[in-house]
Write a structure and sequence with these properties.
This protein has helices at 255-263, 286-294; strands at residues 2-4, 10-12, 15-17, 22-27, 34-36, 39-41, 45-50, 56-58, 61-63, 68-73, 89-90, 99-100, 106-107, 117-120, 123-125, 139-146, 150-152, 156-165, 171-179, 182-191, 196-204, 211-213, 215-219, 232-234, 239-242. By secondary structure, the protein is mainly beta. The protein has three domains: 2-125, no CATH class; 135-242, Immunoglobulins (Immunoglobulin-like); 245-301, Type 1 dockerin domain (Orthogonal Bundle), CATH 1.10.1330. The longest helix is centred in the C-terminal third of the chain and has 9 residues, at 255-263.
Amino acid sequence: MIWYYSDNNLVVGNNIIDGDLYGIDVRHSCSNNLICGNNVVNNRNGIRVEDSRNNTIYHNNFTNSTRLQVESDASINTWDDGYPSGGNYWSNYTGIDEKSGPNQDQSGSDGIGDTPYIINADNQDRYPLVKPFEAIHDIAVINITSSKTVVGKGYNVSVEVTAENQGSSIENFDITVYANTTTIDTKPVTIIGWGSTTVTFIWNTTGFAKGNYTISAYAWPVPGETDTADNIKCADQEVCVTIPGDVDGDSNVDLYDAVKLLKIYGAKVGNPKYDPNCDIDGDIDLYDAVILLTHYAQKDP
């Protein structure tokens, strides 16, 4: 794996095995790259970083390189993720693990070598791992929002779900969005290690009874995941499915709804006056007014 003149990349979760040169070769002004969670095994040389700065390299396993584990020339980079997260596993590290703490001066082992792994005068792994790093499998739903809190029955609500991969491996999984316990939709997601993504779901409320709904999102667990408490999250506000034109959600299409809509007539997304609950079908325009007037004076018990 060779890079030239390349910035702001993620190299995560790869198996780089049995190469006859360098497992990872970073050269010629590469910067701000993250190299993390890779297994670099049985290569002639583990990793070379040449004339490249400000890269971050940790949680990799450099094992059984037949010539050199690491080579760094004209480069200053970060080779660990601080304490207690740690750095890399180097199979030729000869230090011991009898101490703990950021300065490795407290009693008790912690899985981190008591002395740094020295690369050269400008580079060191301050917290070398004494055992190979094991990939973490952990996904989470970190945010869910709906475009409206009031929607006319038969019209759409947009639901945005942000999921995060809190582990080191690329994960493929499904996210399901629910209105109460009814499935709205399920979509597949792929997220690299320590990455996140936002997925948009469209809820068509046709066929749903009028009333209040709790919107939630569930990320289906991945193999090896043990922390599943954060795989589900509910939106902060319920969504009221009601009569089209009932923009204030009181189950009654009346003068208050008409005034509320007319006060912001013509407002579009991004306008400070824009209220998505008044945007019945896509824009706050004549069509919304017609929908409201069509249902004017309707109410639910």
